[in-house]
Amino acid sequence: MTTTQKRLVLDTNTLISAFVNESSASASFFRQVRRTHELLASTETIAELVKTIQKNKFNKSFEGREEKRKGLVIDYTDLVTVVIITQVSTECRDPKDNKFLSLALSGGADFIISGDKDLTVLNPYHGIRILTMREYADEVGIVL
């Protein structure tokens, strides 16, 4: 990581949106931030990504591309910095989202990128800004 790279936590919905439709704004966002930012993940957030991407509702999106679906998670885990959770958060009104807050705290994240109102309502969270993908893109000049 260079000193200018921001440390980001991307929530599962942001990642799924990017992976399911390669021509989407989410996919464009992901392609850009993966090159210019340090992306953080934990075993808990990776496990949720694996479980979510395997759901039947995504079968049509990956029809004929099952290897692609499997490869996305492998590529993602190779790309991210996996953080050991040392600070546990219980402050989110949706307990399932606490894993993203814990990751951000433990990994020294600058931002959490999420469209989930249970997370965005907490912005800022202990000095960590929680923005939607579009808000962050607009702020740093990422063209979607």
UniProtKB/TrEMBL annotation:
This is Toxin-antitoxin system toxin component, PIN family. The keyword Mitochondrion does not apply. Keywords: Plasmid. Residues 6-121 form the PIN domain. PANTHER family: SLL8027 PROTEIN, SSL7007 PROTEIN. The keyword Methyltransferase does not apply. InterPro entries: PIN-like_dom_sf, PIN_dom, PIN_toxin-like. It comes from Thiothrix unzii. Transmembrane segments: none annotated. Pfam families: PIN_3.
